[in-house]
Design goal:
alpha/beta, seven-stranded parallel sheet, 12 strands
């Protein structure tokens, strides 16, 4: 089976490419930079010969049609995932327009299965204490969450009209081999670099990117038995538990002050305004604070396809080891994880 993966140079996309190749499928990737595909998937053990690249932008109708044509299935993972206010315009353009074009092309060209990669954030603010596959689309005004909610409406409209579209809802994701050191990986790095001494209370769903990628590979051939929306493997993590886990796996003290999330929202909104003109990233984003304030519990049962969620502390430890191994954290910042499991200093830092 030939599977198109959009967003294959990103965190979720690259791991989905690897999981799809491991499942025995051929993969095509739509990317603006062909060289970026190899850089993203080579660390995951995917050889160049296993991936066909179509060069183009997901917001270009001709490129979307060219990439989809001739495929048996599509995983639409292309998305700008960022709460950084400097990226708002690209976020709106890519997340909504890209979804419209790819899903329409897949439907027009008769693709047998399309997996749209949404996010739990598309369902915020939650109507109750939990969210699930049948929760209504969210109404958040924050640009990233609003863009994913708009894209979610596009995907649900295709479902309602009978198109073979399946939606996945990944939680926030960590794990090794993040090609662009995206939002969640960067946040963990900021914590260990001492740049996030203040956290909002509350929490958010969090999982391992490798588990979500395995779910996407399973969805490609899952039987059509009425299930068309799946939450990715993960668990709800309070911000206190998050920091406590990072402390435990690294052996570092990491002094942290926790303040009520809703009380922090005005300050976070102000930092978004400042960020538009400030050249360096400020790790105090309104969107992240908003999620902590209003995220609800996702389903606690394991999804009917793919793996169960691996232990959170293991995911954190393996992410920190990767950040250290690639030179993104110093020995001091990585704490006890600056040595490999055998207790020897890491020898392959870049």
């Amino acid at each position: 089976m030939l599977v198109l993966v959009t967003g294959g140079t990103g965190f979720v996309g690259a791991h989905t490419v690897a999981a799809t190749v491991a499942a025995g499928h051929r993969v095509r990737v739509l990317a603006r930079d062909a060289a970026g595909v190899a850089r993203a998937v080579a660390p995951l053990g995917v050889p160049d010969t296993a991936v066909e690249v179509v060069v183009g932008d997901v917001t270009d109708p001709a490129a979307a049609d060219r990439a989809v044509r001739g495929t048996d299935a599509v995983v639409h993972a292309a998305s700008v995932y960022s709460f950084d206010s400097r990226h708002h315009a690209a976020t709106r353009r890519t997340n909504v327009r890209g979804t419209e074009l790819v899903l329409a092309a897949a439907r027009d060209l008769g693709v047998a299965r399309t997996v749209y990669v949404s996010t739990v954030g598309a369902l915020l603010p939650a109507a109750g204490s939990t969210v699930g596959p049948r929760s209504p689309v969210g109404t958040a005004s924050e640009p990233y969450l609003a863009s994913k909610a708009a894209a979610e409406r596009v995907a649900r409209r295709h479902q309602e009209q009978g198109a073979p579209v399946v939606i996945s809802y990944p939680p926030a994701l960590l794990g090794p081999d993040d090609p662009k050191v995206g939002d969640q990986t960067a946040r963990l790095r900021y914590v260990l670099r001492g740049m996030m001494p203040v956290w909002p209370t509350g929490g958010f769903p969090l999982g391992d990117v490798r588990d979500t990628a395995a779910l996407h590979a399973a969805l490609l051939t899952a039987p059509s038995d009425g299930l068309d929306r799946y939450f990715g493997p993960g668990r709800y993590v309070s911000t206190r538990d998050y920091v406590a886990t990072v402390r435990a796996v690294t052996g570092r003290r990491l002094p942290t002050l926790f303040l009520p999330a809703r009380a922090m929202l005005p300050f976070a909104r102000l930092t978004d305004l400042v960020q538009r003109v400030w050249p360096w990233h400020i790790p105090a984003e309104y969107g992240a604070c908003y999620v902590c304030a209003c995220a609800a519990q996702p389903p606690q049962d394991a999804p009917p396809l793919g793996p169960t969620a691996r232990p959170f502390d293991r995911t954190v430890a393996e992410t920190v080891r990767w950040l250290h191994r690639t030179g993104r954290l110093s020995d001091e910042q990585a704490g006890r994880l600056s040595t490999d499991p055998a207790g020897q200093p890491s020898a392959d830092r870049q």
